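User: Quick sanity check before I run a bigger batch. Here is a single chain. Can you write out its predicted 3D structure?
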Amino acid sequence: MKYSLTIFIVLAFTLPSFAQPSPFIQVDQFGYKPLAEKVAVLSNPIIGFNSNLSYQPPAMMEVRRAVTNETVLVGDVNLWNGGAVHNQSGDMGWWFDFSCVQDPGHYYIYDPLNNESSGIFRIAENPYIDVLKAAGRMYFYNRCNDEKALPFAGEKWQDGMNFLHPLQDANCRYVYDKTNAALEKDLRGGWFDAGDYNKYVSFTFAPLHDLLFAYEENPQAFGDDWNIPESKNGFPDIIDEVKWELDWLMRMTNADGSAHNKMGSVAYDQNALSPPSANTDPRYYGPTCSSASITIASVLSHAAVVFKKFKGLEGYAVQLQQTAETCFNYCLPFYLNNNWETNCDDGSINSGDCDESVQNQLEIFITACVYLYELTGDETYHDYFKANYLKSRPMSNSYWSGDYPTIQDALIRYAWKLQNTDKNVQLDIQSDLKEAIANNWNDFFGWNDLDLYRAFVPDWTFTWGGNKPNACYGILSFNISRFKMVSDTSSFVKKGNEQLHYFHGVNPLGMVWLSNMYQYGAFRCANQIYHSWFKDGSIYDHALNSPNGPAPGFMVGGPNIYYSITSISPPANQPAMKSYLDFNNDWPDNSWEITEPSIYVQATYIRLLAYHVTKDITTKITDQMTNTAFHISPNPANQRVALSGINFPADIVILDVHGRTVFEKSDIAASESMDISKLNPGLYYINATNKQDGTVKTGKLSIDR
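Assistant: Done. Predicted structure follows.
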């Protein structure tokens, strides 16, 4: 990463003054793969807090190399949707496709008419590998009962051992019997759930499944090199992080399979000290609850499927399986009597109500059946699944979306991956999803052309933690492609790609939704996050304006149209995509509704990102023009101009900055010069088309008299 950081700094100083990132030109700030589709979004804000700004791009935009400032492409700008205002952003806009730029290197988009420029991005074979590592390290920073020390923690984010003071996690007491030392439990480990320091069992359901899926779907994306304490132990670091959480879940489980629902502080203000090691308040665990037990049964059985494939973890996988089955059996009476416990959390441990509805617990039960059947081959689990799968919401309402992704993942796994399935059930699930794709796609997902920013999701996703369903839509798109659920999957791959670009800056705010990612190439990102460690007013407050800032890689919740404080606009009273403010003020401003990170939003993003990461390789980045470059001489020109570096004979078209053709000549030869004396001084583009093979090269011409 030191090399990449150095390159970024050099580029920043070699750019001309006009190349400060424009608020009107949005690209993936981390870059693109060489063969990927690459489309910049150009925006003119009409509605919302930034409607006082105005932008009109030229008909042609440039792609320039960052080191040399040489133009490598001039291309058409295409008006989106006939000039309509995009409802979710309040913007009208244009698309600039530069997919043909494929040489590795650093680039920026340039508007020569308005002197506007995007920030620098790179084209590389593996542009997201370091971003994935940074996002994965969020879990290390969110570890409970672990020291954040060099060389694993960044110099600015060191902290001593947290929550191992007396009456904290190693000797935690029961919240309803605080003085009874006989009920003390060792509940070390696990992750802080979100912005607070508490730990919740049922809230681990989605993130653990997502992280396990992330590894299963693309294991080559995950190395043993995240720079966490377990790095270089022979196991991928994502597996090590998952194990850190699993160990805690097993400590929350009793021998009979009952499990406690949560643990932490009794008052919220005890969750707000910074850094975590400063907190010496006693910690307590809550009562057992069916939701906790069935969650543990589900995630541990999935983990056992994955862990048993690693040499050296087979014994641990057996332990996971035994605990999962014990918890499942404990839950059978709740299932058989349909009396799942839904009021276990009375708020004695603040805050975050971790109760789950009857429907949610039934769906967690169904997922547990899938993984236990895969793990054991026991038809008992299979029978429970077949008896209940139709009661899951994807099947009962034919609504496949970003709303209930974890149960959807289990159904897809059963229908497209598992062996020894019931063929009728398998076909039933497959047909239900295929019918949703065929008949209801625009209602559930929508193609990218419905969204100026190319990553359409329904309005309801812009809610508390809305970046999670946004990522889930991309994941489902990739699953449709991965399992070839339709004959032509190209549109679904495209949609999944664009969902990622949305997270990396292709949105109305030009915002990377990760914290403090400047060292990774971002030029706008979340500077403030609602997190007790990196709280408002601390040295960790703001990435640009505080001594330390928050650690890199925390995914914020994102825009929220349901933000409850109407007096702060933005976020209030804005189009959906603009319902965001980079702030971390506590009550009564309630910034947690916008900028709070969480282990579940983080996991879905990591899973989506992992689809785009290949094996960690070193890519040679060339920031120089190649020997195939198109040359114009003289340039600036006065009366005549000649061309080289193209194949002759060629047809020549000269366009002005508005895209209007002002000169044409066919079949010019290598030694031929062109009379441009009738053209006015200014900037022009020359397109040279080879007569034999149709290849086109573009150059920029300046006329100066």
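Residues 129-356 form a domain with the Glycosyltransferase fold (CATH 1.50.10.10).

User: Great, the batch can go ahead then.
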